[in-house]
Amino acid sequence: SQKIEQNSEALNIQEGKTATLTCNYTNYSPAYLQWYRQDPGRGPVFLLLIRENEKEKRKERLKVTFDTTLKQSLFHITASQPADSATYLCALGSYSSASKIIFGSGTRLSIRP
Amino acid sequence: SQTIHQWPATLVQPVGSPLSLECTVEGTSNPNLYWYRQAAGRGLQLLFYSVGIGQISSEVPQNLSASRPQDRQFILSSKKLLLSDSGFYLCAWSALRGSKRNTEAFFGQGTRLTVV
User: Fold this and answer.
1) Cβ contact (<8 Å) for B43 and A42?
2) What are the b/e assignments for B79-114, b being 16+ CB within 10 Å?
C-alpha cells in the first residue's frame, strides 16, 4: 500500500542552526510533492511545491529537494528562529490521480533560543 | 481572492447522533474539494475528495459520507456518530490546471469534533 513517512515525530534544534526534515514514500509515483506548516489548532498552510522533474526549490530560508530514485524529499530551514516552531507536513500527488493529495504524519519542530 | 469557510469551529455531539459539517469556497470555480481528519498529534488522513458536483471518492471505509450538492459546497455527514469519530476535521480546496497539474491545497480553519 502507499505510504508516506516523516521519520521524526519531533525535532529540537538551537536557534540559528539549519533544521532538516525528511519525507520518504513507498509504492507511489508522485508527480509533485508539497510541504506545509501547521500551527496548533489551525489548518495547514502551504509552503513549497516541487515537481518530479525538479531537484531543488528555494524560497527565502526554505529549501526543498526531491530525489525520485531514493523516494525522498528533504526540507531545510536555514538560520532557524523560534517562530519557525510548528509541525511540518509533506504531501504527495500523483499523475494517475492528480487531484488526490495525501499527507505524511508530520514532524513537530521546536527551535530553542 | 479565494476564501474557504468551514463551520462550526467546535462541536460536541453524543454517540449515536447525526453529523453535518459544511464547507464552502468562494472566488474560484470547479475546485477540487477535500475532507481530512486529524487525530491529536497525528498527520492528516484523507477521508473524501471530489473533482466535481456529485463526484465523490472515498478513501477510508467508515461511518462517514460526503456530498457535493453544488460546485463550491462540500458536506461531511454521519447518520450515527461513534466515539472514534472524534477528531479535527479539515476541509480544503485545490485547483487542477490542465489534466495533471494540481495546485497546493488551501485549508479551512477546521472543526474540532468531540463525540461523548
Assistant:
1) no
2) eebeeebbbbbbbbbbbbeeeeebbbbbbbebbbbe
Nearest-CB residue to A42 (from B59, B103, B109) = B109
Mean pLDDT of chain A: 92
Task: Tell me phi and psi for residue B66, to 5 degrees.
Answer: -135, 155
- As a residue count, chain A comes to 113
Say how far apart CA B56 and CA B71 lie, in whole Å.
Answer: 12
Q: What is the mean pLDDT of residues B31-56?
A: 91
Q: What is the pLDDT of residues A74-107, one digit of tens each?
A: 999 999 999 999 999 999 987 667 678 899 999 9
Touching check for B114 and chain A: CB below 8 Å? no
CA distance B19 to B26: 23
Whose CA is closest to A37, among A4, A64, A13, A55? A64
